[in-house]
C-alpha cells in the first residue's frame, strides 16, 4: 500500500497529491509537464516534496513534519523508466542483478522465476543492443522486480514499442499483474492503455488530481 499527501513546487504551479493505493494498478494521465513523473520521483526518493508525508506499506519514507526522508535504496521501490535505462556494457543477466548484487543472500530462485515468467532466460548473455524493443522492456521490468519491491512504478513503459509489439506486451502484462500483487503506478498518455491495464485512472492537470474513475473491464475482457 502507498499513501501520500504531498505538495511540491514546480516551475509554473504547485503539485498537490493526496492519494492512497492498495494492491492495484493506478494509471496517471495528463499532458506533458502536468506532474505525473514528479509523483513517481517523490515516492522513489529521487525528488523531495516541499511538505507532506509518504508511506509505503505503513512505513513512513518521507515526512516534512518529522524530518524523515529515507534514501532511495531503503524505500524498496521498483522503477521502470520510459527509456528502460539498461546499462549497455552489461549483459541481460548483469542488468537484472544490478539492484541485488550487493545483497549477501539474494533469492536466486526468485530471479529464475521472474526471468522464466518474462521468457528472457535465453537472453542472459546478450547485451541490450542485441535484443528487440519488446525484450528490452521485459528485461527492464524483470530488473525492477528483482529487488522484490513493495511498489512498482512504470513511466510510459510501452511508449517506445511499435503497435504489433504493444499488442503482445499488453497481453503479457495483464498476466504478469495477476502474479505480482503490489501497488503499481502506470504513467501513460494513452487512454486505451489506461483502461486496458489499470484498475483506476486519474487525470492530472497542472499538478492537481482532477478526475478519478474505475478503469473499464470491457476492453480487458475482450482480449
TrEMBL record:
Superkingdom in the source lineage: Bacteria
Keywords: ATP-binding, Nucleotide-binding, Transport
InterPro entries reported for this sequence: AAA+_ATPase, ABC_SmlMolc_Importer, ABC_transporter-like_ATP-bd, ABC_transporter-like_CS, P-loop_NTPase
MF GO annotations: ATP binding; ATP hydrolysis activity
Residues of the ABC transporter domain: 1-223
Entry keyword ATP-binding: yes
SUPFAM superfamilies associated with the record: P-loop containing nucleoside triphosphate hydrolases
Keyword flag ATP-binding: yes
SMART domains reported in the protein's UniProt record: AAA
Protein's name according to its UniProt entry: ATP-binding cassette domain-containing protein
Taxonomic lineage of the native organism: Bacteria, Bacillati, Bacillota, Clostridia, Eubacteriales
Amino acid at each position: 500500500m502507498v499513501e501520500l499527501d504531498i505538495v511540491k513546487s514546480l516551475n509554473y504551479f504547485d503539485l498537490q497529491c493526496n492519494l492512497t493505493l492498495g494492491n492495484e494498478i493506478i494509471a496517471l494521465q495528463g499532458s506533458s509537464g502536468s506532474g505525473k513523473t514528479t509523483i513517481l520521483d517523490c515516492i522513489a526518493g529521487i525528488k523531495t516534496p516541499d511538505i507532506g508525508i509518504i508511506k509505503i506499506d505503513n512505513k513512513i519514507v518521507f515526512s516534512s513534519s518529522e524530518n524523515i526522508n529515507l534514501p532511495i535504496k531503503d524505500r524498496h521501490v521498483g522503477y521502470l523508466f520510459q527509456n528502460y535505462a539498461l546499462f549497455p556494457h552489461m549483459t541481460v543477466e548483469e542488468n537484472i542483478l544490478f539492484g541485488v548484487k550487493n545483497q549477501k543472500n539474494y533469492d536466486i530462485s526468485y530471479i529464475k522465476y521472474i526471468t522464466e515468467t518474462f521468457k528472457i532466460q535465453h537472453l542472459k548473455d546478450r547485451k541490450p543492443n542485441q535484443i528487440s524493443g519488446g525484450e528490452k522492456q521485459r528485461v527492464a521490468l524483470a530488473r525492477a522486480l528483482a529487488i522484490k519491491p513493495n511498489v512498482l512504478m512504470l513511466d510510459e513503459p510501452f511508449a517506445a514499442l511499435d503497435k504489433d509489439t504493444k499488442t503482445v506486451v499488453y497481453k503479457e502484462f495483464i498476466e504478469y499483474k495477476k502474479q505480482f500483487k503490489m501497488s503499481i503506478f502506470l504513467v501513460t498518455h494513452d487512454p486505451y492503455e489506461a483502461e486496458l491495464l489499470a484498475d483506476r485512472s486519474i487525470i492530472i492537470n497542472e499538478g492537481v488530481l482532477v478526475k478519478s474513475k474505475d478503469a473499464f473491464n470491457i476492453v480487458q475482457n475482450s482480449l
